[in-house]
């Protein structure tokens, strides 16, 4: 077997607490499919037959009941870990080390992409790389996000990614948070790769191909807990550090039993034959200096950067909304689920999706929206640009624009919601005779709606 | 030719001896009318095939006279009659048309019929039937078909032309189950040019085969000797799709297949596998590593102090020889000739300069300017064909031609495992077309040939190999010694007899 796929679905979704405090992130509906369905579908399309899914018990329970998950034909080997734990992704890999028999392909559950996966894996295969990852140009989300006051916050901590001239070899990776004064690059890198392109507008897709030796290395080095945060920068740095040539020298102080990653990589069989083939081959990955291919280094990290095409990581609210609009375009599925009951005098735009068992009454208008399963929409409702999850009831006369309404919420009669985020199971009072035009509702974790402002026609009426 | 005439005489003598022995047992043969006509045709024909056959035919009129015959005699009579008929047919053929000189002389006379050789499918790409057959074969083996790319120059439209940007792995599933991962990796490395060069490709192939053999388990009710060979066939097709196989790889594959089929059926799996692995190790050691050492030893005799040696491209063997000669304290300098689009000479330059050899670097367009300085030319070979032609990187024949014009000795270094039974006199029939987009170059931000596909009358040709006639090659240095180019068929024959 060549590669084993591992899906990391235990993440918390810490950057969108409003959505995830009730539904765990892997099961958030995107285009009426659970979020983790997308990477599983990607793996299935490419040809994987088995996936190891690392997740929590809660998600596991929800997975078994969800109808869409039953569409997944691959064999899912679910490994449950503690929910509260500070288990990072690397810790999770260490946890399943016994199951890993070959090289691994680690995917995050919040990745929605249509990239040709063979590009990443080809880099991994052809250059016998230790790490191959996927990055894409970061997207600017243009839609107004409910719950955000005014302009967007200043850009989050950037990632500095250094690649060589061909754009494939990963030379440098650091996060702005780790750099105090400035960017310092080791001389050994500059000597070997005098031309380096440093990019800041890239987003990591959290898709990694790792050699089996790396998993074994993780098993020995328990201090590494996150793949993205610690392991990847460590491997990228280690490409250029001096290798210990003589295996006899062992540092007494530290790790007598722990092997360095170099030793693990070198200890493959038939190494002399591979060396011979490389020596006799008239190929070199760089030119201009006197060293052989790859500068004689055994540890190599590669990255595939995509400019065009869909690649989203759904970890913020803005990304979630964007994904909901674009994800259905990945698949050609009927916009309206066959079991939905839609009355004839309903105006439905072509880019809306209606889920299963919905009931949409007369004189409604649904444009650019996603309506989840088992939702009831009564008469004279206008829904524009919104995401409505499962089990929601929208009473008559509502006007919903740019909102995200989580599952099992009830929107009372005549409510007028613009750019709101309504939490799970909440109830919006029927407005009836009152003429309140704008309502901003924010959820916090103790399940009570807290209104920050009620503004009528751009004038502050009252706030509590 | 002289050789053939000598052989004819030997065989005639041999046949005469047999005839005399038979005559001792029987009556003296009456000189038959059939004798004289067959004999002049025998001398007139240059074709070795029909010649010795008429000799036993001359026995038949002798045998026909005897009344009482034993079973053995009847058999011999029947056989002789058949052979005489065959000979008369061939005599007619030989008189009428130009006899095709068969490159491989066949020792036993009964196998002297011209063997019908089918054209290999990789040189019949413009024939839709052949393509259909190939597609069917690949489908059966579950290997995707790689489609040709771009406009092909009409003279070479019978060859495949693939694009580097469309690797075969696009159509394969990612955890490849049909093809062993080591072979997928190897195919990728071939198609991207990471493993290039005849020796490197063979070593990498054998390394991948070692992994395949290690991971192999015999299915129940199957024999390892037959099943493993069947397992290897789709892998070889896959590698062929990624990049056409080289002659050295072909010979290595033949060797492995022979070793596998020679495994006795009562051998246990573990034993058989370890035997195969050690065979592979042995092959690499003998044919590549030790051969390189032997060739270096012979070549060093030919390198004298003060020499100016010209090399072309990056041949691992020639580089090895030069490094060894430098170690043995010979004083010489090297001129490295390079050509686009591969520019492999840069890598050769790097390796030589790293050792401390003083080098000059020129492009092939300057070869006639630099040749007056040169005292010897060392060339590497991709394969040595059975008629003495040298198949090597495109540009080699150019260099050999110019060197001949300047009376500079040309020495070709080649291991015997690259000797091939193919015969070729031109570079058109069987060659390899590389990606035409490799010829496109961007200078100062401008790419002139960017839209070459839109110009209907423009075709880009990126040839990989060419053949050099033996007249331009003065010496071939092999691990068996230093031989002239025309002795290649002898070496091939010796190899066949050994095996």
Automatic annotation (TrEMBL), chain A:
Transmembrane segments: none
SUPFAM superfamilies (alphabetical): Nucleotide-diphospho-sugar transferases
Molecular function terms, GO-annotated: guanyl-nucleotide exchange factor activity; translation initiation factor activity
Keyword set, alphabetical order: Cytoplasm, Initiation factor, Protein biosynthesis
Subcellular location as annotated: Cytoplasm, Cytosol
CDD domains linked to this entry: eIF-2B_gamma_N, LbH_eIF2B_gamma_C
Gene Ontology cellular-component terms listed: cytosol; eukaryotic translation initiation factor 2B complex
Biological processes annotated in GO: cytoplasmic translational initiation
All residue ranges annotated as the Nucleotidyl transferase domain in the record: 5-137
Domain EIF2B subunit epsilon/gamma LbH positions: 339-431
Family per record: Belongs to the eIF-2B gamma/epsilon subunits family.
Function text: Acts as a component of the translation initiation factor 2B (eIF2B) complex, which catalyzes the exchange of GDP for GTP on the eukaryotic initiation factor 2 (eIF2) complex gamma subunit. Its guanine nucleotide exchange factor activity is repressed when bound to eIF2 complex phosphorylated on the alpha subunit, thereby limiting the amount of methionyl-initiator methionine tRNA available to the ribosome and consequently global translation is repressed.
Assembly information from the UniProt record: Component of the translation initiation factor 2B (eIF2B) complex which is a heterodecamer of two sets of five different subunits: alpha, beta, gamma, delta and epsilon. Subunits alpha, beta and delta comprise a regulatory subcomplex and subunits epsilon and gamma comprise a catalytic subcomplex. Within the complex, the hexameric regulatory complex resides at the center, with the two heterodimeric catalytic subcomplexes bound on opposite sides.
Protein name in the entry: Translation initiation factor eIF2B subunit gamma
Gene: eif2b3
Automatic annotation (TrEMBL), chain B:
Composition bias type Basic and acidic residues, residue spans: 20-29, 66-95
Keyword Glycoprotein appears in the UniProt entry: no
Compartment(s) where it occurs, according to its Swiss-Prot or TrEMBL record: Cytoplasm, Cytosol
Segments of this protein annotated with the region Disordered: 1-112
Main location (coarse class): cytoplasm
UniProt feature, compositional bias: Basic residues: 7-19
An individual GO BP term: animal organ development
A Pfam family this chain is assigned to: IF-2B
Gene Ontology CC entries for this record: cytosol; eukaryotic translation initiation factor 2B complex
Summary of subunit composition and partner proteins: Component of the translation initiation factor 2B (eIF2B) complex which is a heterodecamer of two sets of five different subunits: alpha, beta, gamma, delta and epsilon. Subunits alpha, beta and delta comprise a regulatory subcomplex and subunits epsilon and gamma comprise a catalytic subcomplex. Within the complex, the hexameric regulatory complex resides at the center, with the two heterodimeric catalytic subcomplexes bound on opposite sides.
Role description: Acts as a component of the translation initiation factor 2B (eIF2B) complex, which catalyzes the exchange of GDP for GTP on eukaryotic initiation factor 2 (eIF2) gamma subunit. Its guanine nucleotide exchange factor activity is repressed when bound to eIF2 complex phosphorylated on the alpha subunit, thereby limiting the amount of methionyl-initiator methionine tRNA available to the ribosome and consequently global translation is repressed.
Family membership noted in the UniProt record: Belongs to the eIF-2B alpha/beta/delta subunits family.
UniProt name for this protein: Translation initiation factor eIF2B subunit delta
Species: Cyclopterus lumpus
Gene name for this UniProt entry: eif2b4
